Amino acid sequence: MIALDPWAWAALGLAAVTIGISKTALPGGSILAIALFAAVLPARTSTAAMLLLLMVGDVFALIAYRRHAHWPTLLRLTPAVVLGLLAGFAFLALTGDGVVRRAIGVILLVMIAVTLWRRWRQNRADAVAPARGGILLAGTYGTLGGFTTMVANAGGPVMSMYFLATRTPVQVFLGTSAWFFAIINLVKVPFLAGLGLFEGQVLLMDAALAPLVVIGALIGLAVAKRLDQRLFDRIVIVLTVLGAVYLLF
Fold first, then answer.
1. Positive or negative CA dihedral for 157, 188, 195, 204?
2. Do residues 3 and 15 touch, judged by C-beta distance below 8 A?
3. In terms of pTM, does the model score above 0.70?
4. 3-state helix, strand, coil in the chain (%, to 5)
5. Distance of alpha carbon 201 from alpha carbon 179, whole angstroms
6. What is the 3-state secondary structure (H, E, C) of 135-154?
7. Contact predicate 154/50, CB 8 Å
């Protein structure tokens, strides 16, 4: 197993609980786990280690919200996400860790600004936002979501911004996200394995942290039932901003 100081294990433990909560209650919250893993482990190692723990959380997200997914949204996003995944794989293979982190931070901040601007414009016009976004919106967010999830498992905040931009209800938000990332994370495994990132030490560390993901997922299920739509949106935006600033600086 990877030799780490006690404080580092504490940080990874907190990150594992956060992963569970993010999967069942606060999709944007995964950015905190990304920051903690990146602070303790080398960037590429943290990407691989987090992916396996995210897949543990995916199981609970699917159990809880699988029936709430909106499949037309997933199909609309698919072509752009595939393009983003391929671009992210090339970027990960050719670029240094520092450049990757800063690029993701910039993307997240831009997506937040665009989302808030869209919602402000809609409110000013007293327009009711459509339940689902158009092809251009899906293409933009889908490509960026695929890119960021490949290079740093940071697709959650980007896709959260997409669902917020389309004013998706909480349950549909969580159900669609659950299927989206369960599928995407499975697709990412052979890519990261091809880069040699799933070492024995990483697997042992994940085995030790997996029970904490389960605990976090159960906490998230209890919290999600009490979340108001406005509070949910605000929490996702705040967590995304904090994570983006951390990755940027």
1. positive
2. no
3. yes
4. 85, 0, 15
5. 29
6. HHHHHHHHHHHHHHHHHHCC
7. no
Gap between the Cα atoms of 199 and 29, Å rounded: 27
| Distance (Å, whole) CA 245 – CA 227 | 25
Sequence-separated (6 or more) residues with CB below 8 Å from residue 6: none
Counting Cβ atoms within 10 Å, is residue 8 exposed (0-12), middle (13-18) or buried (19+)? middle
Q: Distance (Å, rounded) from C-alpha 239 to C-alpha 50?
A: 18
Residue 199: strand, helix, or coil: coil
**Each residue's pLDDT tens digit, 65-111:** 888 888 988 888 999 999 999 998 898 888 777 787 777 777 767 76
pLDDT one-digit tens code per residue, 184-214: 999 999 988 988 888 888 899 999 999 999 9
The whole-angstrom separation of Cα 164 and Cα 102 is: 23
Residues 6+ apart with CB under 8 A from 136: none
Measured CA to CA, the distance from residue 45 to residue 41 in angstroms comes to 6
Pair 14, 36: CB distance under 8 Å:
yes
105 closest CA partner among 59, 54, 41, 38: 38
Place of tokens 């993701």: 104
Contact between 44 and 100 under an 8 Å Cβ cutoff? The reply is no
